[in-house]
């Protein structure tokens, strides 16, 4: 499944997640410091946390999926966005050595599709 260019206003690439999790390495004057995450899952966010991704083949060796996130985590009933993700399953390394862990790539944004940046 090739997702094609992300042009729909409701389909945003995964780079948006950086905003939610405070991806900035420096604080500007007047910025609010990040707060600790809650111990449990807030009930209003439970449907988002319970999602099971349905990975489908896309562009050869890659797999693609979509998932929903709230527009505003502080007010999750205010609507949501559909984000796209791509992954390449690990393969055995030369010499039969064990597979390594995951790699998350976030090329930044906003702009073009992060999936199309990763999947040729």
Could you characterize the architecture of this molecule?
The protein is an alpha+beta fold and 120 residues long. It contains three helices and four strands; from the N terminus they run βααβββα. It has helices spanning 17-20, 46-49, 114-118, and strands at 11-13, 56-58, 62-70, 80-87. Strands 1-4-3-2 form a four-stranded mixed beta sheet. Residues 1-26 have low confidence and may be disordered.
Summarize it.
11% of the residues lie in helices and 19% in strands. The chain contains three helices and four strands, in the order βααβββα.
Please state how the strands of the largest beta sheet are arranged side by side.
1-4-3-2
Mean pLDDT: 74
| Multimeric state | single chain
The backbone outline, from C-alpha atoms, is: extended
Sequence stretches where pLDDT stays below 50 over 5 or more residues:
1-26
Strand content: 15-25%
Which structural class should the secondary elements be placed in?
alpha+beta
> Over the alpha carbons, how many angstroms does the gyration radius reach?
17 Å
How many separate helices?
3
The helical percent reads 10-25%
Using DSSP, what is the number of strands? 4
Helix and strand run: EHHEEEH
Biggest sheet statistics: 4 strands, mixed
The span between the termini is 13 Å
What are the defining features of this structure?
120 residues, alpha+beta
Write the layout of secondary structure elements.
Elements: E1 11-13, H1 17-20, H2 46-49, E2 56-58, E3 62-70, E4 80-87, H3 114-118
Parallel strand pairs: 1-4
Antiparallel strand pairs: 2-3, 3-4
